[in-house]
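Structure ticket #2291
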Amino acid sequence: MDLLEKVAAPLGRLTEIYMLRLNAITLLSSYIGRDSGQRVLEGQVHRGDGEEISAVILFVDLKDFTSMSNRIPGRDLVELLHEAIDILAPQVAQAGGEILKFMGAAFWPSFHIVMKRKSATSGRPPCAPCGKRKP
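Resolution: structure written out below.
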């Protein structure tokens, strides 16, 4: 019992620190996105900082949601939203994107585009998401 009492307080403090960091990651990811949230926690982003990025923002909306919300019970409607998120979110993450915002039945995933240097042969940069040459 003495050993357990000796490690309880330090282990409790470590657990508290871990949980506070986990909560901060979750909160920041929810409000400013996974990548930006991580950069804020690492001290790479400060108030007033900005960065221009090339990105594709996709707008996804559930078809006929307003009509469905008038016909389907609330719990079933929420379950439908969860199913849609469960289908969309892994696909977005697998493609290197992140969901920036949820608005009712709409989702706004973002995909950062890394533009490569112009090719010596064509003089045009390749299409970043697929690596193919632009026409």
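Closing remark: Helices lie at 2-32, 34-41, 65-71, 74-94.
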